[in-house]
Amino acid sequence: MELFNRLYEAYHDYVFVTCYAVLHHRQDAEDASQQTWINIWRSIASYREVNTKGWIATIATRASDEL
Question: pTM of the full predicted structure?
Answer without folding.
Answer: 0.93
